[in-house]
């Protein structure tokens, strides 16, 4: 089982989209790579914590490779927009790929280079080691499964 953390704007839609991918075994939403220990949603929303709304994904690399998972991730974000996805604005909505296994870095950078060829503007999606991850509050976990008509900036039919 492999692990990766992906930030693509509001974590509700990213979580729901990724949960539908064959080979994704578990996913939880939370706050990644900020400077405040164990922040609340309200704190993260201020934009002062440095955290990104993100999804901690566990997947079976015998079913889906990291490069394939990243291809799906690129499909649901605009990686050239800084601190915004859809109507959501703020540093907490930045895009990022936070790796746990340093051996994944080359795969991630190759995927990013391949994706860059589709854009004239530079990709601003962060690629960094995962420094911190704190689980979001329970009401955020599997939010769109609990609230099927809830807000989502991602086309979940992709």
TrEMBL record:
Residue ranges occupied by any Peptide methionine sulphoxide reductase MsrA domain in the UniProt entry:
3-153
Q: Which GO terms describe its molecular function?
A: peptide-methionine (S)-S-oxide reductase activity
Record keywords, A-Z: Oxidoreductase
InterPro entries in alphabetical order: Met_Sox_Rdtase_MsrA_dom, Met_Sox_Rdtase_MsrA_sf, MsrA_MetSO_reductase
Q: Which GO terms describe its biological process?
A: cellular response to oxidative stress
Q: Which residues form the active site?
A: 10
Enzyme Commission code: 1.8.4.11
Q: What does this protein do?
A: Has an important function as a repair enzyme for proteins that have been inactivated by oxidation. Catalyzes the reversible oxidation-reduction of methionine sulfoxide in proteins to methionine.
User: Which Gene Ontology cellular-component terms appear in the entry?
Assistant: cytoplasm
Q: Does the keyword Oxidoreductase apply?
A: yes
For whether the record's keyword set contains Ubl conjugation, the answer is no
Instruction: Give the catalytic activity.
Output: L-methionyl-[protein] + [thioredoxin]-disulfide + H2O = L-methionyl-(S)-S-oxide-[protein] + [thioredoxin]-dithiol; [thioredoxin]-disulfide + L-methionine + H2O = L-methionine (S)-S-oxide + [thioredoxin]-dithiol
Q: What protein family is recorded?
A: Belongs to the MsrA Met sulfoxide reductase family.
Q: Which Pfam families match?
A: PMSR
Write the protein's name. Peptide methionine sulfoxide reductase MsrA
Query: Where does the secretion signal sit in this chain?
Result: none
Q: Which Gene3D superfamilies match?
A: Peptide methionine sulphoxide reductase MsrA
Organism encoding this protein: Anaeromonas frigoriresistens
For this protein, the record's NCBIfam families field holds:
msrA (TIGR00401)
């Amino acid at each position: 089982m492999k692990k990766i953390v992906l930030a693509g704007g509001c974590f509700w839609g990213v979580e729901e989209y990724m949960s539908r991918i064959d080979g994704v075994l578990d996913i939880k939403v939370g706050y990644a790579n900020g400077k405040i220990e164990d922040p609340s949603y309200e704190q993260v929303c201020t934009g002062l914590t440095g955290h990104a709304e993100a999804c901690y994904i566990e997947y079976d690399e015998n079913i889906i490779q990291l490069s394939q998972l990243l291809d799906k991730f690129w499909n649901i974000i605009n990686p050239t927009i800084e601190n915004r996805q859809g109507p959501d604005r703020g540093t907490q909505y930045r895009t990022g790929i936070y790796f746990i296994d340093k051996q994944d870095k080359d795969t991630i950078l190759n995927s990013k280079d391949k994706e860059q060829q589709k854009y004239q503007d530079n990709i601003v999606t962060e690629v960094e080691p995962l420094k911190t991850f704190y689980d979001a509050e329970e009401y955020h976990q599997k939010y769109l499964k609990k609230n099927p008509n809830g807000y989502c900036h991602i086309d979940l039919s992709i």
